[in-house]
Design a protein that fits this description.
Layout lengths: L2 H11 L5 H8 L3 H8 L7 H11 L3 H12 L3 H18 L27
Helix pairs in contact: 1-4, 2-3, 4-5, 5-6
Length: 118
């Protein structure tokens, strides 16, 4: 899962044809949407929360995913990816809701019952 898929889902649900319309719905600039799409920028927590509200999903899922995309440290990225996945699972949404993604780097923390060793 990545934040671009969340943006695409808003476009689908709101029947928006362009990123300019998406920017209008999110109350941001088209340049900002373009920067998200070209991965020059990752949405901040405020924008992630707005996206989650529009999709009616747990804010932590989008915020954690955005933090994972922004994070350069692999351990911290895996932490945020795990938090995003846990939030999605708590929501009870079917896996088909989102397109396939690679979650091979997501590992639970020891405090969450991980039996994996480093």
């Amino acid at each position: 899962m990545n934040t671009l898929l969340f943006l695409d889902e808003i476009k689908t649900r709101c029947q928006l044809a362009t990123d300019a319309q998406l920017a209008n719905v999110l109350d941001c600039s088209t340049a900002q949407i373009s920067q998200y799409r070209t991965k020059k920028r990752v949405m901040d927590d405020y924008m992630a929360a707005r996206v989650a509200e529009l999709l009616e999903i747990d804010e932590l899922e989008v915020i954690a995913q955005a933090n994972a995309e922004r994070e350069r440290d692999e351990v911290r990225r895996a932490y945020w990816q795990h938090k995003a996945e846990a939030a999605r699972q708590r929501s009870g949404r079917p896996l088909e809701f989102w397109r396939a993604r690679d979650d091979s780097n997501v590992r639970p923390l020891p405090s969450e019952g991980s039996t994996l060793s480093n």
